[in-house]
């Protein structure tokens, strides 16, 4: 019996509305580096749902994985040091410029 739900559908990488302003300020090279890392997360099948982050030079890139919707979303780009999971209760930090 064939399932109507395609579990082999690839993940999509998107930019959350709140992050577009931050992305617009990045150089083309930095944006491509971020995009490549997010595509790596998507290619790995994003095994676990939830939020994550990774450093890129002096920036920290925050993303969220939605396994049900098969979506990796760029949430925020900050200039803070260290990579902690983003949560709604987290205080605001300086944004990338």
From TrEMBL:
* Annotated source species: Myxococcus landrumensis
Q: Which protein, by its recorded name, is this?
A: Uncharacterized protein
- In which domain of life is the source organism classified? Bacteria
């Amino acid at each position: 019996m064939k399932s109507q739900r395609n579990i082999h559908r690839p993940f999509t990488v998107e930019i959350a509305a709140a992050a577009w302003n931050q992305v617009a300020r990045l150089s083309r090279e930095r944006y491509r580096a971020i995009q490549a890392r997010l595509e790596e997360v998507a290619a790995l099948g994003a095994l676990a749902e939830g939020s994550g982050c990774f450093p890129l030079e002096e920036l920290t890139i925050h993303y969220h994985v939605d396994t049900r919707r098969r979506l990796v979303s760029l949430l925020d780009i900050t200039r803070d040091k260290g990579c902690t999971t983003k949560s709604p209760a987290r205080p605001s930090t300086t944004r990338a410029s």
